[in-house]
Amino acid sequence: MAEAIKNRIDLDYSKYDFKDEVKYVYQAKRGLSREIVEEISYWKNEPEWMRQFRLRSLEIFLKKPMPTWGADLSEINFDEYIYYIKPTDRKGRSWDEVPEKIRKTFERLGIPEAERKFLAGVGAQYESEVVYHSLREDLMKKGVIFTDMDTAVREYPDIVKRYFGTVVPPEDNKFAALNSAVWSGGSFVYVPKGVKVDFPLQAYFRINAESVGQFERTLIIAEEGAEVHYIEGCTAPVYSEDSLHSAVVEIIAMPGSHVRYTTVQNWSKNVYNLVTKRAVAYEGAFVEWVDGNLGSKVTMKYPAVYLMGKGAKAEILSIAYAGAGQHQDTGAKIIHAAPYTTSNIVSKSISKDGGRTSYRGLVKVQKGAIGVKSTVRCDALMLDEFSRSDTYPYMEIEEELVSIGHEATVGKISEDQLFYLMSRGLTESEALTLVVLGFIEPFAKELPLDYAIELNKLIKLEMEGAIG
Amino acid sequence: MPTLEVKDLYVSVDGKEILKGLDFTVNKGEIHALMGPNGSGKSTLAYTIMGHPKYKVEKGDILFEGKSILDLKPDERAKLGLFLAFQYPVEVPGVTLFNFLWKAIQANNLDSTSPRIKQLPKSVVDYKKELLEKIKKLNMSEIFVYRPIGVGFSGGEKKRMEILQMAMLKPTIAFLDEPDSGLDIDSLKIVADVVNSVRNPELGIVMITHYQRILNYIKPDFVHIMLDGKIVKSGGPEIVEKLEQEGYAWIRETTAEAAD
User: Fold this and answer.
1) pLDDT at A462 exceeding the cut of 70
2) Which of A62, A250, B36, B99 counts the most CB atoms within 10 A of its CB?
C-alpha cells in the first residue's frame, strides 16, 4: 500500500492552464536596464519621486548578490524576462469595460461570480496592469479606498508617499529591490479610523504571456480601530519557459486595528515566486497572514509581522504543497519589539513525488519586550520516500520574562491509518484524501467558505486523478 | 453455504509465520468467542480477513458466501459486509467521526444492492437521526462525534467509537478485537448492551478476548480456543467455564495428549 501512495497527488491545473491570444498595447523587450525602468515610469506617467525611487532601487538590485540560502535560484536569468506588458489602455469599473478576451479569462476563473456573491471589492490584474477595479459604494462613502497601486500614486500621493517602501525598503533584499524598480499594479487599500469592512476585498493576479515577470506592489493601511480582510489569488498557464513573480506587500496596522491577509497561490509549476510580505502592528493591533502555497516551481516567502506596540498580536498560518519539481521554501518571521505582544505560527506542509518543502522561521524577542508569548508549530507530511521536508526554526530571544513554545512533527501517512479508513468502505484514494484534508483542516477552516471548498476540491483532484 | 469460511489458512507477517493451518466457519446470526493466550494469532486472523496488506496469506483460502475474497482490497471486503472493531483504533487529526462515518456509509451505498446496504441511511438527515439515537444508547455525548477520529479519546471512548461504527454500518460478519480490554465494569456493560441490541439473524459476531468476563454479558453460541496459530478446541459456552477454572494449561495438556 505504501507504494500505492506514490503518484497520488498531482495538482489539477486544467481550470487554470489555458492561454489567451491577447493583443497588448505595449510590451517591453526582454531584459532589465535603466531604459526599461525609465520606460515603465514613462508609460505610467508617474511623479518624479517615484521615478527616482525606481532608479535608486535598480542600483540596489544590481549591487545585491543573489541569496545563497533557501531555494535554488541558479537557473534564474534576469535577461530573459519581459518586465512590463501593458495589456489594455484603460481600467474598467464594470466588467463590460474590460476587453472581451481578458474578461473571459476572469470569468473562467470565477472572479465576477465571487464578487457578486461575497466580496466587498475586487481588483483584477492581467500581466503588468490592473484591468478592473470595484468597491462597494457604501464603503467608498465611508472613506475606504481600494484601488490599484498606480492610480493610488497619482490620486493619493500624500498617503502613498508617507508609507510606500517604509515597511519593505528596497535595501531589504534583492527581490524587494527588483520589485521596487519595476513594480506595476497591485492593490492599495486604505481603511479610515474605526471603519470595519465587513466583507473581504479581493485581488486576482493573472500571468498569461510566456517569460513575463509580474511585480505587483500592495500597500494596506488600517487606521486606528479599523478592520479589513484582503484576499489574493493568482494563477498562470504552463509554458516551457519560466516566469517570475516577485511581489512586495506592505501592511501598516495602526493601534487597535485588525488586518487579515489571505492568499492561496496556485501558480503553474514554471513560476519562480519570490515574494516579500511584511506588516507592522502598533499597540493592540492584530495582523493575520493566512498563506497557502500550492503552485509555482520555487517559492520563497516568509510573511513577517513586526510587533511594535504593546499588546499587539500576530498569527501566521500557512500550508505548502510540493509535488514533482517543486520547492516550497516558506515560513514566517515575527519580531517582538514591544512588551506583552503575542504571536502564533502554524505551518503545515505536504511533499510528494520528490517535492520539497522547507519551513524557515524566525521568532525574535527584543530586549525589554517582557511578557511576550509565542508558539510555533510545524507539521510536515511526506507521502513517499522520495520527497523531502526540512525545518529551520530560528529563535533570537533577548529577554528572559517570555514564554516561547516550539513543536514540530514530521510524518508519513501510515499503512494502519489507511487500513483503518478502508476497512469501513473507503477506497484507498478516498482514505488518503481524507487524511490529507484532515491534515490541512486547521488552515482550510480559516478560509472563506468558497475558498475552502475550492482548496478541498483541488486536493481531492490531486489524490484521485492519478490512481490506478 | 457458510457465510464466512476460513480454510487451512497459513499467514505470515514480516516473514514470520503466525497462522498455521487454521479452519474456522461463522454464519449469520451466530456469536463466536475466539479465545487464546497472547501471540496465539487471534488478531492476526481478524486483520487477515479484513485484508491488511502486511498480513500475507501463504496458503489456504477465505470464502465469503462461497467466493474467495483473497484478491479483494479492505474497502471491497467492507462493502461485502465484513467489519473489524479495532483493539487500537487509529487517530485521524482534522477528520471528525461524523464526517468520516457519513463518507463510509455513502461509499457503501454506492456499491451494492444487498439487503444490508438497503438498511443504511440514504440522506444525511436520516444518518444524523440514527447516529444520535445510537450515541445515546452508548451513553456518549453528541460532542464526541464532532471531535477528530480517536484524537484525545479515552480507552473506553475508543471502544465505544468502534461499536458505534459497527452499529451504523450493519455488517454481516463483525470481528470485535478485544472490545473489553481496558474497560471498567460499567463501560463493559454498556458496550455489551449495545452489542446485544444489534444482535440479529443477519449478523454474525466473532469476539476476540482474553477473558471470560465479557462473555457473562454477551452469551456466545460457540467458543474456540487458539494456540500457536491454530484453533485447537471448539465447543459451546461450557468451555469458557473450564478455561476459567483451569487456565490455558488444560488446553495445552489436552492438545498434547491428542498429538500423542
Assistant:
1) no
2) B36
Please, what is the Cα angle at B179 between B173 and B183, to 5 degrees?
Answer: 165
Instruction: Let me know if residue A279 belongs to a domain.
Output: yes
Point out the residue among A416, A417, A438 whose CB comes nearest to the CB of B94. Answer: A438
Residue A438 to residue B148, Cβ atoms within 8 A = yes
Residue B91 CB partners (closer than 8 Å, separation 6+):
B148, B149, B150, B151
For residue A75, is it within any domain?
yes
Asked if the Cβ–Cβ distance from B169 to A424 is below 8 Å, we say yes
3-state class (DSSP) for residue A150: helix
Region B197-213: mean pLDDT is 91
Place of cell 486472523: B45
B183 pLDDT higher than 90: no
A74-102 pLDDT, tens per residue? Answer: 999 999 999 998 888 778 888 888 888 88
CB contact under 8 A, A425 and B78: yes
Residue of A nearest to B80 (CA): A425
pTM exceeding the 0.90 threshold for the entire prediction:
no
Short-list A187, A174, A19, A214, CA closest to A104: A19
Q: Is A427 on the interface with B (CB under 8 A)?
A: yes
Count of the separate structural domains present in chain A = 1
Range of the domain at A288: 13-414
Put simply, whether A407 touches B (Cβ < 8 Å) is no
Task: Please choose, from the candidates A32, A119, A25, A36, the residue with its C-alpha nearest in 3D space to the C-alpha of residue A81.
Answer: A32
CB contacts of B77 in chain A (<8 Å) are 423
H/E element holding B60?
strand B55-64
Domain B4-259 belongs to what topology? Rossmann fold (3.40.50)
Domain assignment of residue A86, yes or no: yes
pLDDT range class, residue B140, cuts 50, 70, 90: confident
pLDDT on residue A355: 92
Mark yes or no for CB contact A434/B95 under 8 Å: yes
B50, B53, B105: residue with CB nearest A415: B53
pLDDT at B112: 65
